[in-house]
Amino acid sequence: MNKNPSQSFECKVKDGLALCGCHIDKTSSTKKIGIAVSGGADSISLLFSLSSLLKDTEWTLYVISVNHNIRPENETYGDVLFVQDFCTRLQKEGVSIHFHCAEIKRGAIEDYAVENKCGIEAAARHFRYKSFEDFIKNNQLDFLCLAHNKDDQLETVLMRFLQSSSSGNRKGILRKRGKYIRPLLDISRAEIEEYLLNHNLSWRTDSTNLDDVYFRNKLRLKLIPFLNENFKDWQSGVLNGYEKSVVEDDFINSFAEKIEYDVSFDENNKKIVSLKDNQFFCAHKAIQLRILFNMVKEIGAENRIPYVFLQDVLKSLSVVQNSNRTIQKSFSNIEIILKKNNVLIKNRVKKHTDTLFFDIIEETGEYDYFFGKISVRKNQNINQDNNQRLDAGCKVFWNDDYTCNLELPFCVRSYQPFDVIETADGGYKKIADVYNDWQIPVEDRWKIPVLQTFYGSEQKITGILGKTFGYKNWIIKNRRISE
């Protein structure tokens, strides 16, 4: 007998639960299952389908809704009331439900983002998962269901690819991680909305989902519609490629896990990870990269580690193996120290006035950074008129592409919040405002190098090398801006 669309949807949810190790039947010992519900279509469909599946069982459904307090009160508190009312309706229909609202103090997420130099989304996720952990512990839950779906998986895989993530970071959304499970990963957003409409169920829409300043929203609102219109079956191609990469990653991991590293603690009880295994230094580059990623993850890196940084570490590794040099590499809150037959990774001690990178270039040559190579070459066409110093003494290249002229010495560094740069009309603009115009996520802004000249008393910033991460360059040339 053919199942109707609603039965088919609920069977797919039940199959998704089983794939996560959660089996809904009368013989199962699991009796307490949780679900995070925001009020959006995904979580409402999961809540309603679970309530249908659990209706004739002894299971209790524990619902948590997190009020982040980062949108207007009528929106954010309205979502919570919507979820609470929905749970009350299900209770009246015979479903055993326990509802809890986790309230985050207004301003706490913004303060955390500033203090930890991360974006609002990352800060909100930190508080959200802290609430989830408390909810799981307080209610002794066996599982907590999250409502990520097939479209979310696709967006995540695209994001990781476009961000050029290292192999260890390229994984999509995991079906199961500890007590967190995602039963909707094989169900599309279109199927979810069809299921809700079939039951005349409404849902809430987060207004920030329409703000394309966020990378994920930009993909969802601009890139994915373009791909849907112009490239048939591209979604299955991307997801099949992702599944293949997962298998390949597992293969690399099977070798990387054989090489052990030592974990110790410093005087502040911070982890230090070290490795002296000769097998590592003889291993294939792919395995070395995975081991480095695992070591960095063990330390607890604050930010996602880019491939270009780990690639730079491997280049330096070959240098120290053929010499007695010691090389130090820093990224975010970690420091990597390379010696012959020895790799040590620890938490970097930051001073209050530290910038994330700062380097004074005093002579011609090539300089390697995690964002690429800067080459400084002598300019043979120096303007000799000191009253009209239009050109400086050296040409500056990034990855062999000409960028600008500068006079030695000059500085390559990450930007600071109050930095300004000259505009085409001779005025000045905050670099933070430039980054807002370019729609660069807050957590990525420190990675983009700025060039600061030491010629003259003002020591102006003369360039932003945005192209190092796929944005524009902003270069001051003869009081004009070249992008």
Structure description:
- A hairpin with a 2-residue loop joins strand 9 (327-331) and strand 10 (334-339).
- The protein has a 6-stranded mixed sheet, sandwiched between helices. Strands 12-17-20-21-22-23 form a 6-stranded antiparallel sheet, with no helix packed on it.
- The termini are far apart.
- Helix 1 packs across helix 2 (41-54) and helix 6 (150-162) crosses helix 9 (234-256).
- The protein is built from 13 helices and 23 strands.
- Helices cover 37% and strands 23% of the residues.
- It has helices at residues 5-19, 41-54, 73-92, 108-115, 120-139, 150-162, 189-198, 215-230, 234-256, 278-282, 285-299, 307-321, 431-437; strands at residues 32-36, 60-67, 97-103, 143-145, 176-177, 180-181, 262-265, 271-275, 327-331, 334-339, 342-347, 358-361, 365-369, 372-378, 394-398, 401-406, 410-414, 420-422, 428-430, 449-453, 461-465, 473-477, 480-482.
- It has 483 residues and is of the alpha+beta class.
- The radius of gyration is 26 Å and the shape is globular.
